[in-house]
Specification:
The complex is a heterodimer of chains A (312) and B (355). Chain A is an all-alpha fold. Chain A has twelve helices and two strands; from the N terminus they run ααββαααααααααα. Chain A has a single domain (43-309), classed as MetI-like (MetI-like fold, Orthogonal Bundle), CATH 1.10.3720. In chain B, a hairpin with a 2-residue loop joins strand 14 and strand 15 (351-352). Classes of the chains: A mainly alpha (312), B alpha/beta (355).
Chain lengths: 312, 355
């Protein structure tokens, strides 16, 4: 009797649990759909008026109400690219050091420090970037680069310390702890049996790291990189502080530029004309689409890599 | 079991709290809170006025500094009792929404600069100089066009970096309105607005007054524009500017007020008047008023009266407080004009609210 009663409550609990989890999952879909609908609807005015030209034009003129997003899109892509180029190799190295070379007792503390870094609010990075890092860039890095490469191309322009490169480096600092933390966990999950057998076969530490640890955790590493990418592409406050906020596409890494998020943060509050507001929302839509495209590309690429590497 | 009990107690306490709050809200039929939203520029002075006014009358003013655009949207959505905007609305837009607009406080925009060895007021610029700097036509501080206005001063061979606001702002609106008034070329190429397509390829942008000020302080040879109060409080060197009468003037409360006094408010329909490039020997050429927006037809006479009483108090007793914060109070002649407009235009149930 007692047993029967328990299973019956168990069953009803199970149903409740199922419904609850399903409802939660459906909420995500509803929010996504609502978001897309809202973005499309609110940006329809701008989509109709500017069409495909919105993506190609560099002209952002709130007075004449002509809007082109090319400079913002370019800025988002390039600053994120710089951040990834710096952050991914660096965090791989840090994670390798933490897992393979450092004694567990110390590594634990460093790991905690990294997690703490990840919790620093982005505005702090932004202010640090503007007040500490930008003067350093203007006073030391830029003159140094100009002495080596001359005042042309990638390194031209007056040394003001803010611009694309500064934004990219600050972004790299911000995503570094995220990527490192995940990659470290991934490397730690590699079974020691596998590593020990490789050592037993006479492999050096480098060989074990390269051929066993990294290969074993490859999927996780890519996942970590995309986590960082996702954060970098949507980062707002820190970028707004240091990117220079200029609607121009410039060859120089030191020139002030703009990103989608920075444009939104700067201009949304005072945009009162319908077409201006609509163009800003279309920028949001573009960012949303970019994130989706990156997701899809990363998935397909990951699948192909997995196949070629022979992992299940 | 114990945790459940604690949880329930917590819930109970929470509910009583909420209930208490609600009953307070319901019990006070009398109006004791006014809501406004909008421009950030006058926020410090509105907040000070509200603080003092609440002490005197127990009437609380909730002012959310969400930006002029937000203020206009909020008053149109009727979620606030009044909106505030740095840029005046055109009569057509006011009529379409049934809104009345009146100026509340004056502020000035001041070109600030950073040139090694030069102090506040040591450099004089004509309107033409300023326009050409921002157009990217004058590239060096020792350009003959600048030297002409500064006889006997040894200007350095330094590149000019123009600094502007990155965020949409009323300050940019006033500044570019001035540039448009004094230069046909600027008007045609750039125009005026809260955000612009800046023509100078060498210009950089900072967020807020503090962002512009930071860049001006950091870059040798920079020129930017900030609100007067900000320039004064942070002791950023400013330039002397040539006004419409041809005089070189320094920014000061007196020179802003001169702009307001000399302006032709009587003939400005809907108080649409920008205090840039106004006549008068003492007048600072880049000033602007910040405006309040209210509905002409009010539903609640008592509430409308309470709002107007607050503004009346600000006009008549708020001047010293405003000056302490380096804002410029409206001159009396303009206040009289505004209050007579209240009498004529603001009604509830077809009866005037303000007598």
């Amino acid at each position: 009797m007692r047993i029967f009663k328990e299973t019956s409550t168990q069953n009803s609990l199970d149903t409740l649990f199922k419904t609850l989890t399903m409802a939660s999952a459906v909420v995500i879909l509803i929010i996504m759909a609502a978001l897309v609908m809202e973005l499309l609807q609110s940006s329809s005015l701008s989509i109709k008026k500017f069409g495909i030209g919105f993506f190609c034009s560099n002209i952002w003129d709130p007075v004449r109400q002509v809007f082109g997003a090319a400079s913002s899109i370019y800025g988002t892509l390039v600053s994120t690219f710089i951040a990834m180029v710096i952050a991914v190799p660096l965090s791989l190295l840090i994670a390798m050091f933490l897992v393979e070379l450092m004694p567990q007792s110390i590594s634990k503390w460093i790991g905690m420090a990294i997690e703490l870094l990840a919790a620093v609010p982005s505005i702090i990075y932004g202010m640090w970037g503007l007040f500490v890092f930008a003067p350093f860039m203007a006073g030391t890095v830029q003159p140094f680069m100009r002495n080596i490469f001359g005042d042309i191309g990638l390194f031209s322009g007056p040394p003001i310390g803010i611009g694309m490169l500064t934004a990219g480096i600050i972004l790299a600092f911000m995503i570094l702890p995220f990527i490192t933390a995940v990659v470290r966990d991934v490397f730690q999950m590699v079974p020691s049996v596998v590593k020990e057998s490789a050592h037993g076969m006479g492999s050096t530490l480098w060989e074990v790291t390269r051929k066993v640890t990294v290969k074993y955790g490859f999927q996780g590493v890519i996942g970590a990189a995309f986590l960082g990418l996702g954060r970098a592409i949507g980062e707002t406050m820190a970028v707004t502080f240091v990117i220079g906020n200029s609607h121009r596409i410039s060859a120089s890494l030191f020139a002030p530029a703009n990103s989608i998020t920075a444009t939104l943060a700067n201009e949304f509050a005072e945009a009162s004309e319908p077409i201006y507001l609509s163009a800003l929302i279309e920028l949001g839509l573009v960012l949303f689409l970019m994130t989706i495209i990156i997701q899809v590309l990363s998935r397909t690429w990951l699948r192909r890599v997995k196949k070629s590497m022979g992992v299940q | 079991m114990k945790t459940i009990r604690t949880f329930l107690t917590a819930c109970l306490i929470f509910l009583t709290e909420v209930n208490g709050l609600l009953s307070v809200a319901v019990a006070s039929d009398k109006i004791n809170v006014l809501n406004g939203a909008g421009a950030t520029f006058p926020y410090p002075v509105y907040a000070q006025w509200a603080h003092k006014y609440e002490k005197l009358t127990k009437m609380r003013l909730n002012y959310q500094a969400i930006g002029s655009g937000g203020g206009i949207a909020q008053i149109k959505a009727k979620t606030v009792d009044f909106g505030a905007s740095d840029a005046p609305l055109k009569q057509k837009e006011l009529n379409a929404a049934g809104l009345l607009q009146f100026p509340m406080i004056i502020g000035g925009v001041v070109p600030v600069f950073n040139l090694k060895g030069f102090k506040s007021g040591q450099i004089k610029l004509s309107a033409r100089n300023l326009v050409d700097m921002y157009l990217g036509k004058i590239k060096k501080w020792n350009d003959s066009a600048i030297a002409e206005n500064n006889p006997g001063i040894d200007l350095p061979d330094k590149a000019i970096t123009t600094v502007h606001r990155a965020d949409g702002s009323g300050t940019t609106w006033i500044f570019s309105n001035y540039l448009s008034k004094v230069s046909a070329e600027w008007k045609e190429k750039v125009g005026f607005g809260k955000a612009l397509r800046w023509p100078d390829a060498n210009s950089i942008a900072g967020k807020g007054n503090e962002g512009v000020a930071t860049f001006v302080k950091k870059v040798d040879g920079a020129i930017g524009y900030v609100e007067y109060a900000y320039a004064l409080q942070n002791r950023i060197p400013y330039v002397k500017l040539q006004n419409k009468a041809g005089q070189y003037v320094s920014p000061s409360i007196e020179s802003f007020q001169a702009a307001a006094v000399n302006a032709d408010w009587e003939n400005a329909s809907g108080f649409y008047l920008v205090l840039t490039d106004q006549p008068g020997n003492e007048t600072w050429p880049i000033s602007g008023a910040s405006f309040i927006l209210m509905y002409k037809k009010q539903n609640d006479a008592a509430k409308a009266k309470a709002v107007l009483e607050f503004f009346d108090w600000c006009y008549k007793h708020g001047a010293d407080l405003a000056k302490e914060l380096d804002y410029v109070p409206m001159p009396e002649t303009v206040v009289d004009l505004v209050e007579s407009t209240w009498k004529k235009e603001i009604t509830a149930n077809n009866k005037p609210v303000w007598k």
